[in-house]
Design a protein that fits this description.
- The chain is α+β, with helices and mostly antiparallel strands.
- The protein has two domains: about 5-25 and about 45-130, Phosphorylase Kinase, domain 1; about 140-330, Transferase(Phosphotransferase) domain 1 (Transferase(Phosphotransferase), domain 1), CATH 1.10.510.10.
- The chain has ten helices and 13 strands.
- It has helices at about 95-105, 140-145, 150-170, 220-225, 235-250, 260-270, 280-290, 300-305, 305-310, 325-330; strands at about 5, 60, 65-70, 75-80, 85-95, 120, 125-130, 170-175, 180-185, 190-195, 200, 210, 230.
- The strands form four sheets. A seven-stranded antiparallel sheet has the order 1-6-7-5-4-3-2.
- A hairpin with a 2-residue loop joins strand 2 and strand 3 (about 65-70).
- The radius of gyration is 20 Å and the shape is globular.
- One of its GO terms (molecular function) is ATP binding.
- It holds the Pfam family Pkinase.
- Keywords: Protein kinase inhibitor.
- One of its GO terms (biological process) is positive regulation of proteasomal ubiquitin-dependent protein catabolic process.
Length: about 350
């Protein structure tokens, strides 16, 4: 028996080894043993296909929706709403984990840069969560165009930072933040939304200290790799945003090695190089995010105050050493330091 809930206010994962390969790309392969010059794929366990309890083997129909080809190794499906012929994306969860998966979505007020649930249909053993369709994710976009001009990157990264700031403001730590979680909401690829919040942690109070350690190795902060039992979840998200920004502007991850032990050693040391050609303000923001000490990183409100974003990205070559933005940062991140 199905129960249709309508618009719903909806997350956990171990340490994987990079981002998942493109669902439709014929080039998607397992990680190679040689040096990785581009993106490291993230191996994730495959979720089971939807239960056939509510439909027969010929037509995957859930309520007013028809499920079409699977995506992401069977973790989601393209769906069509039969009465309107509108397209949606459908994720399937066992009923025992459905409420936990929905929790981050239920905590967050609406935001233009965060995906919202369109409808939830509950079966006897599975829950079907429908989202508006996307137009490709940022990881796939960068695989095609390698890297972005600063003005384009600034416009898109601002939306990313706004989405993460909205989550942090309302007690959500993302934990597994990466390029693939940002999906284009329009065909022109000018609007991004953060989706797949199922792995996020819902905080019970102002303390954002976490003890579980998971995510994609290319994005994890050095504090997660140390033996200390707890770390700041919000600061770890900011580090991941720094990896995202570096990759958008440079075309590769700041820390790359074929062997995980070598990769983690590089991340622990926090040493990376920024190629020439980027504006001083872009270089400054990258360094403000990828600081080894979590307390020295910008907070998400501080990121939005940075002059590289305020200036449209590469609009000026002046360094970001002026007093105005740093005075504003005193209210949100007192330990911000000079570029270096």
């Amino acid at each position: 028996m199905l129960k249709i809930l309508g618009t719903a206010p909806l997350g956990k994962k171990r340490l994987d080894s990079g981002e998942a390969p493109d669902a439709k790309s014929p080039e998607a392969k397992r990680p190679r043993l040689g040096p990785l010059l581009g993106f490291v794929p993230c191996l994730q366990p495959l979720a089971p296909s939807p239960s056939t309890e509510e439909h027969d083997a010929r037509v995957l129909q859930i309520g007013p929706y028809v499920l079409l080809e699977p995506r992401d190794g069977g973790r989601s499906y393209r769906a069509v709403h039969r009465p309107t012929e509108a397209e949606y994306s459908c994720k399937v969860y066992p009923m025992r984990s459905y409420q936990e998966a929905m929790a981050p979505y239920g905590r967050l007020p609406p935001h233009p840069s965060v995906a919202r649930v369109a409808e939830v249909i509950q079966g006897d053993r599975s829950a079907y969560i429908f989202f508006p369709p996307g137009h490709g994710d940022m990881h796939s976009h960068l695989r095609r165009c390698k890297r972005l001009p600063e003005a384009e990157a600034a416009a898109l990264f601002r939306q990313m930072a706004e989405a993460v700031a909205h989550c942090h403001q309302h007690g959500i730590v993302l934990r597994d933040l990466k390029l693939r979680k940002f999906v284009f909401a329009d065909r022109e690829r000018t609007r991004l939304v953060l989706e797949s919040l199922e792995d996020a942690c819902v905080l019970s109070g102002p303390d954002d200290a976490l003890s579980d350690k998971h995510g994609c190795p290319a994005y994890v902060g050095p504090e997660i790799l140390h033996t200390r039992p707890r770390y700041s979840g919000k600061a770890a998200d900011v580090w991941s945003l720094g990896v995202v920004l570096y990759t958008m502007l440079v075309g590769r991850y700041p820390f790359q090695e074929a062997e995980p032990t070598l990769l983690f050693s590089k991340i622990r040391h926090g040493a990376f190089a920024i190629p020439g050609g980027l504006s001083p303000r872009a270089r400054c923001l990258i360094r403000c995010l990828l600081r080894k000490a979590p307390a020295e990183r910008l907070s998400t409100p501080g990121i939005l105050l940075h002059p590289w974003l305020a200036g449209g990205g590469g609009a000026t070559q002046e360094p970001c050493s002026g007093p105005s933005w740093r005075q504003g940062l005193d209210q949100v991140v007192p330990n911000v330091g000079q570029e270096g």
